[in-house]
Amino acid sequence: MRSIRPVLAAASLAVVMALTATACESGGDPKADAKPTNSASKDAGSGSDEAQLPDDLDGIADRLKERGIDVDKWKNGEWKNWDKDKWLREAKDFANPVIEGLWSDERKKSAKDPHQTVSSKAASSSEGVSDPEPRPVRAEQERRPYWKYAASVGKIFFDTPEGAAVCSGTLVKDPRNPGKSNLVWTSGHCVHKGGPKGGWYRNIVFTPAYNHKGLSARALESAGPQDKAPYGEFWADWISTSNEWIDGTTATDPEGGSYEYDYAVLHVKPEKGTKSLEETVGTALPIDFSSPSPKSVDAMGAWGYPQAPPFDGALMHKCIDRPNRLSLTSSAPTMYRIGCTMTAGSSGGGWFRQTSGGKLALVSNTSIGPAGSAGWLAGPQLGDGAKRVFDTMSKKYGSQ
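and the corresponding structure tokens:
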């Protein structure tokens, strides 16, 4: 068992914990008749000034036909074809038609995180920018029910060439549509393979406050839909991530991962005539794009659903620690790093800090951890590039 990091900045950490609860207590008790959403789908990458997004969220069939794909065949299993000619990769290519009944309990149970790791050598060859590796902080379970304390946090299920996969995500506020956000923040590697050979993942669904009672994996198997997905399941109808992630422009590994730009935002669309995701869940968290220096932050907290052993993906966990710096290359910004024993499955989960106004805000997301172990997590700084990705989505689709 790894040693646990000694308590530091105890008063500050206690404040963060308290604010986490307060920020999410406005979440509404999930309705018994919550149903999965029905929606069409699409997406874009970041962009120099603005991501190149289509004019609307409709026309999925036409978009697929442009690539020689029939939407009916796609729903009947053609989506399993990952040949290079069928794997859509450009920002304008994303398409995510709803396939009713696809995400069965069995498929969710088999889902694995396409976990991103870096070797200890890569993490230490930082040209003097990285701080010493933090001591592990033991991940602790979130209080229950999740809808009361962390309703904005949830699981993201999706398909990859290797099979069903899972990540974590956070429902975030949309300033252009106050109180009515349909935007979810996560990692780029949870939606797109990244690098010159990668493409968009498929059948992407967000489930806020998954397993809100905190049932064990065994108990969850026999639980009803309301316990597993208290607010329903929301299909992404568009996704935007950074061009750097799509192209792998600062990749430090053979797979092409530009981890410093490993972030994404999903737009989900509830059934016609129903409330927005934020109205349904009852709460959302703001994003802080100021990229604060780690030295100026007493504590950051990471939330998610770790799935790899010793965890099983059923329960929401969190780690809180003072952040430091991790640099993988001198050509890209440094990343935040904290001690944390969460494993694969927590990818994409939000990192939060207390702002000067005393409120909790999302400031990063889980991107990478150390290869062969679980002692720390790192996430990208969310600066101007991340804000452009978010603003483009908000301006174009926020009200839809």
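(Above: one complete record from the training split.) The domain at 10-397 is CATH 2.40.10.10 (Thrombin, subunit H).
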